[in-house]
Amino acid sequence: MISLDAHTKVYLAAGATDLRKQIDGLAALVVDVLHEDPFSSQVFCFCNRGRDKLKILFDHTNGFWLWYRRLERQRFGWPPAGTPGPVALSLRELHWLLDGLDPQRAQAHKQAHFDLI
Length: 117
Hints:
This is Transposase. With 117 residues, this protein is an alpha+beta fold. It has one domain (10-98). It has 2 helices and 5 strands. The chain has a 5-stranded mixed beta sheet.
């Protein structure tokens, strides 16, 4: 069983990625483009030009996991090319992304403040 805890960071590679790349090619992009360590047990996400396919790379214990998701009719809300640095998300925001929400636009309810009299 794969368990991701609340401290796991999620990084998106902004813009389009050639998803013909497999584990080794994506791990090289993690180093060259995201400037992160692919062996850090963090989650790295890549999206194609059409924004309907997504690959997620994750190192767990003694090897990599590679998840692939393809949408039939919708598109992922994805940061455009030229976005400075890797885009960091929480696991909750990753779930939003996979559920079809744009994590960059999603807003939580405003916190209510009450004055005590």
